[in-house]
Amino acid sequence: MRSIEEQDLAALRLRLPKYVVAIAQEDRTVLLDVKQSHYYSLDDVGGRIWTLIGDGLVIPQILERLETEYAVPSAVLRTDVCALLNDMCQRALLEIA
Q1: Helices (DSSP H) in 1-97: which residue ranges?
Q2: What is the pTM of this model?
Q3: CATH for 4-96, among 3.90.76.10, 3.40.50.300, 3.90.930.60, 3.40.920.10?
Q4: Which of 28, 65, 81, 87 is most buried, judging by how many CB atoms fall within 10 Å of its CB?
């Protein structure tokens, strides 16, 4: 599978798998993969990305939204978000639609 960065970000659709349950806490989101019985913890930014994917936003929209919400250069934001999304896809916490 090609990395997220190597794909057309505007055309790429991500979806949340039905077998991953998310529980939002104060400053983190806990993901439970019920198929593999593994859990993962996302910080507040990762949890925000999870929510935006669930809301149906595509990656360029997510980047735009995060850029307005957090004070971070767009190049750094893109690199970090794509790295997180790649990791989540490899762990089957996200699906490419």
Answers
A1: 44-54, 59-69, 74-90
A2: 0.91
A3: 3.90.930.60
A4: 81
- Number of Cβ within a 10 Å radius of residue 3: 12
Report residue 18 as tokens: 């039905």
How does strand 28-33 pair with strand 38-43?
antiparallel
pLDDT in tens, 33-57: 999 999 999 999 999 999 999 999 9
Q: In the chain, what are the domain boundaries?
A: 4-96
Q: What tokens were used for 8?
A: 């057309």
Read off the tokens for 34: 């019920």
Whether the CB-CB separation of 62 and 53 falls below 8 Å is answered with yes
Amino acid 32 reads: L
What is the C-alpha to C-alpha distance for residues 20 and 37, in angstroms, rounded to an integer? Answer: 10
